[in-house]
């Protein structure tokens, strides 16, 4: 990622010890505030809630930079309205570009960068608020 961010020699910026430290802290991350309420609201409204995260790209021969990753998920809904909600605008935008309805929560990123990623169908500052907006926008359609 550092190389993609313009760091020509990432190993000169971050040592193996730095990476180990970061990975230890990564394993201590907790779920985003409001996620439990968000999932509960959606499930109570009849939505099926799935998680889609980065997996083993070597094993799958596919990762989230590839539109096929989103399209495969979308196909599993059999043509029903399907929402992709994310706390990363690039993620919601990629899914929307593949046919999902897009929802984005600014809980951490704050700046939506709509000039780069476009508008989402739903945008909110907190996860429960995002769930309520998805429910309202779905007009009774569930996916």
UniProtKB/TrEMBL annotation:
GO terms for molecular function: hydrolase activity. This is 2-haloalkanoic acid dehalogenase, putative. The keyword Hydrolase applies. It comes from Colletotrichum fructicola (strain Nara gc5). The lineage of its organism: Eukaryota, Fungi, Dikarya, Ascomycota, Pezizomycotina. InterPro entries: HAD-like_sf, HAD_sf, S-2-haloacid_dehalogenase. The keyword Transmembrane helix does not apply. Keywords: Hydrolase.
